[in-house]
Amino acid sequence: MKNNFVCLIAFSFLFILVNLISGCSSKQSISAPSIVQTPTPVAGVTTLTVSGLCSLTPAAVLTPCGIAVNNAGTLFLADIGHNRIIWCDPHGNTIGAVGGPGAADRGTGNSQFFGPYGVAIDALNNIYVIDTYNDRVQKFDSSFNYLTQWGTSGSGNSSFLNPMGIAVDANGNVFVADTYNNRIQKFSSIGSFIKSWGTTGQANGQFVSPTAVAVDSSGLFVYVTDTGNNRVQKFDSSGNYVSQWGGFVPNNNQGWPNPSGWPPCSTPWGIAVDKNGNVFVCDTANSKILKYDANGNFITSWVTLSANGYDDMYPWGVTVDNTGAVYVVFFINNPLTKYIFS
After folding, report:
1. CA separation for the pair 69, 302 (Å, rounded)
2. How far apart are CA 289 and CA 159, in angstroms?
3. Which of 17, 181, 264, 306 is the most buried (most CB within 10 A)?
4. Which of the residue ranges 10-19, 51-60, 95-104, 321-330 would you say has the lowest mean pLDDT?
5. How confident is the model at residue 35 (pLDDT cuts 50, 70, 90)?
6. Distance CA 262, CA 264 (A)
7. Minimum mean pLDDT among 139-148, 179-188, 205-214, 309-318: which range?
8. Rounded Cα–Cα distance for residues 64 and 338 (Å)
9. What's the count of helices (H) and strands (E) in the chain, helices before strands?
């Protein structure tokens, strides 16, 4: 039996704390936010914070999780708290929304959502949404007109148990992080099942609650945040295990494999790959963004502080546009922040 959506939010936040301690479809009119420059978190990075995304009709607090960007730079945010997808331009000017607009406005119809955790864009600018608590994927065209859907509740092929992550490769293949079935499923662009991989565990190719998935620009490699195991795993596009990195064991701050020079990560959530193959990971419980090369060699990390000066923002979703700008959404205070590397 599924929990209600309030429990979904509570569980997600509890998942972070544990690591620290041990309606009908509607397109809404949204007022444009402003952009405020904030202090640079590390050398070579300019930070722009988009504010005003809560200026909705009706007014409500945004709760974004997944984020994606298309070729034109339009950003798409999965607002799980209000069962909708919001999109805005590269400067943070909000364009519109579909679904919601409130926590009670959820449903099982076309263009309705129940806790949409993830969103992805293909090369044709079609939009794919992980409708998490409806256990399905919904596909839309670039204007957010409904096209198709697939998925049912269960553990068989093309069935899901609270999927949270989605990615699309250059050939239109769709990869879904089937979170509580502890596996990745691969589909064609119209939802035909291709294959799946993964079982529950800590060995290579096994998962504990994988929450996000990303594919590199070549379509050759797939990266998964294996959240419950506090690591990133890398596979080829057929699901063959390649490597892993990260790892964190509470109380002794040592992980596996975590060789020298690799910082531990705790509750990694969002993940994205830029056109050069660099991998960006939301190290959620440590409130950091980690940057690696394609082989998992650590490059840098940074923290965005909240208004009170604490590192308590908890980054949840990340994406990279074709200029190399990195966009991050946060669980706490719900800002959308843009990092421009010099």
Report:
1. 22
2. 32
3. 181
4. 10-19
5. very low
6. 6
7. 309-318
8. 15
9. 1, 27
Query: Nearest Cα to 230, choosing from 214, 198, 253?
Result: 253
Best CA proximity match to 277, nearest among 264, 296, 260: 296
What is the token pair recorded at 24? Answer: 């009908």
| Of the candidates 151, 180, 134, the residue with the CA atom closest to the CA atom of residue 15 | 180
Mean of pLDDT values over 200-223:
97
Of 235, 124, 242, the residue nearest 186 (C-alpha) = 235
Report d(CA 325, CA 67) in Å as an integer. Answer: 13
Contact 131, 137 (CB under 8 A): yes
CB count, 10 Å around CB of 316?
27
The C-alpha atoms of residue 63 and residue 275 are separated, in whole angstroms, by 28
With contact defined as beta carbons under 8 Å apart, do 278 and 268 qualify?
no
Structure tokens of 260?
Answer: 């020298």
pLDDT of residue 94: 76
Q: Which residue has the tokens 């990869």?
A: 175
Reading the block at residue 308, the tokens are 């009170």
For 228, the 3-state DSSP assignment is helix
Q: What is the reported pLDDT for 307?
A: 67
Q: What pLDDT sits at residue 301?
A: 87
Place of tokens 């919001």: 86
CA-CA distance, 164 to 151, in Å (whole number)? Answer: 13
pLDDT digit string, tens, across residues 105-116: 789 999 999 999
**Residue 267: C-alpha distances to residues 56, 169, 289, 316, 335 (Å):** 31, 25, 12, 10, 20
